[in-house]
Amino acid sequence: MMLSIQEASINFGGVHALRDVTFQVTEGSIKAIIGPNGAGKTTLFNVISGFYPPISGKIVMFDKEIQGLKPHQVAALGVNRTFQNIELFDNMTVVENVMVGRHGLSSAGLVKGIIGSAFRSPFVRREEKDIKERAMHYLDFVGLAPRAEENALALPLGHQRYLEIARALAAEPKLLLLDEPAAGLDERETEDLSRLIEEIRKLDITIMLVEHDMNLTMDISEEIVVLDYGEMIAEGTPREIQNNKKVIEAYLGEDIGD
Amino acid sequence: MTLFDRLLQFFIGGVTNGSIYAMVALGFTIVYHSTEIINFAQGEFVMLGALFMVSFSMIPGIPLVAAFVMAVAGVTIVGMLVNLLVIRPVRNPNHISLIIITIGASIFIRGIAMQSWAWGKGEYASPPFSGDTPILIGNAAITPQAIWIIGITLTVLILLHFFFENTITGKGMKACALNPRAASLMGIKVNRMVVITFALSGMLGAVAGIIITPTTTASYKMGVMLGLKGFCAAIIGGLGSIPGAILGGFVLGVLESMGAGLISSAYKDAIAFIALLVVLFVRPSGILGIGDIKRV
Amino acid sequence: MYDPAGFWVSGISSGYRMSSRGNIIAVLVLSGVMLGLPLLLNNDYYLSVLIIIGLNTILALGLNLLMGYAGQISLGHAAFFGLGAYTSGILTTSYGVHPIPALVIALVFVGVVAIIVGVPSLRLRGYFLGMATLGFGVIVSILFKEMSFITQGPSGFRGIPELSAFGFVFDTDLKYYYLIWTCTIIILMISANIINSRIGRALRAIHTSEAAAGSLGVDIQAYKLAIFVLSALYASLAGSLYAHFIGFISPSSFGFHFSIVLVTMVVVGGMASIWGAIFGASVLTLLPEFLMVFEDYEIVVYGLILMLIMIFLPEGLTRGVIERIKGRLAR
User: What is the SS3 assignment for A54?
Assistant: First the structure.
């Protein structure tokens, strides 16, 4: 079992952002987390990726408990993500952003890295070449290779999201968390995104997806978890979710699928 | 003198200095509370208050009370100028810029004071408000000036409390501190409130400087340590908390006094900063703070 | 196509630093200039000003890495400078240790102090980190003044011997000049290399988005601490060299005032430009010399500079001016 969330709960100053959330994610699958605004979806991602520990409950990945680990430790175990409000490094070029994604895969430690970099040791120079090559590979995968040397913010919104995805992919995750990747994209861009996610899945990467775009979600997910006010109110296949009364109520008449 | 007498004496000294620290801390805190800015120039408000008072009181025919009012008014204006000319124009306010700018402002003000024809590098004494015969409490002595200091501080605090709780402007300031957007939607002019905040902090600084001058001397340098220590007091009590600033001030005053008296007076100045580090490392939100400091 | 203005400008403005090629050329040019300067300015006074500029550059470089790239502030950096100076001074004078081992001991000592101070401080954010470093700086300067049994107290520590290594004694300003500028240029190259490396990228990432950096495997606390310690080591080195050069050190050179001067150097030069460190160090070292006529106006001008730059040119003079020139050229 790739990931098992067991009764995860978290509290922010009295607000129960997550309450006893329990579900599992099978390796190689695409699992979506949906729910009205404020349901706790991004909070769930933040807990999984180590930004804050849950007050109670466990997050178990491949039989290893990972709740309470720091973000870089969770990343080292193979979990990477994108962000709802794009968190690109605006003081770097497109390719440099992706190169940061390779950071965790470097073999040198911090002190060795500093000394090696300071004096440009052959090891560091080789590694740098390697990092850039791999980064270009991932940029190519999302179709951004031609714009590698531009400043990251020069890209339009849709491409910025792709860049964030390329950056996360460069870290060679086993589990990829995509937080509202379709936000702000138009129909055509969303279709492209859908195809990109399918390609990622072919790389044997397990995907968890937080999304508001119901068409996209219903199209590509295998299983869906629905959160409302921090509680899990439904889990199932897209068809099951579409016909679930509680889910429909929670969205108060929003169109779920066509 | 018995140990108790000595402790009492230190305590009295501590409360006296603590009053000053409390007022300076309060100046920092009300500005931080409404704007999240740390105004390093606060210490210079103290210095200006003291020096203005010295100058005004030397003008023949002006009663002390009038000089007091004029000095406070002068620094209040400086406070507003600092806000309008230095802080408002900043285009990308972030912590580092604001720290550096207010440090720049404090250095600038100090430099002007040092260069001014009126004051230069001199040290000025001023007479105590009502004589200097100490009054005995048990076996410990308290000077009349110390009583003035503590008394005026308490009066100012009570007035301030009344202002925040019972006047429209005061309540408006509290609203701005809590939620500037909502406040502005309710028709409160946030920018105006911020200027008033700076004016108030100038006032507080000035009063502190005026009442302490008879016990130490006034000079262009006096604001540096007082400002820094006042800031330590604000953090010790809990930055952003008004009662915290007051508590922090008195706690620091007493700690310093006890430390200097019982352990060593050479390292007296270090006590405030050691206390600062202890608080920052152990409980950054301070004694009365709410634990809101973004700890990584 | 080779376009000198183009690669200088694009090197500095995009991505905050120059390409490796740009850096190498700049270093060669600088080395050439510094090599030849003494021939023009063969005068001990000018040499000592240049020496101080070199030392201040080392200090500013460390602080630049910390403030501009790692995004942390230090309002007490003069303390590390002083600790390096006093350690070297005391060991060589009072205990007869040779200057080079003493310098190394100072580095280790200051490194340890930086770790002890850094670990709890770097968990704090924004203002609170600044205040912690300020508190540390003030405490250290009080210790310099009061621990007179080692430091000889507020009147200063005298009689520090000249630097000597392997039998070679640095006993003239000219020799110090070459020694110190060699060190400065080496430190400059090291800093540029670090910034253009994986480590530098991680730092820049931390500066922009700790959330994203952490999610990609960057150990944020470790990196912040590493740069903090590195900047302290730069300061210690500068301090040791300073102590041997001047032969006399006093607590007043290592207090809050100098910490602010250092921050000003970084701000003036530009927080995200290591070449700005030389510029900032030069301007702030030469300023008192120019203002000698006006004597104490120095502090008024410092204050004014700080305020004006932060309001109008927050990216610092080098970047700010270059951006503006670039803007003009583009029309």
Answer: coil
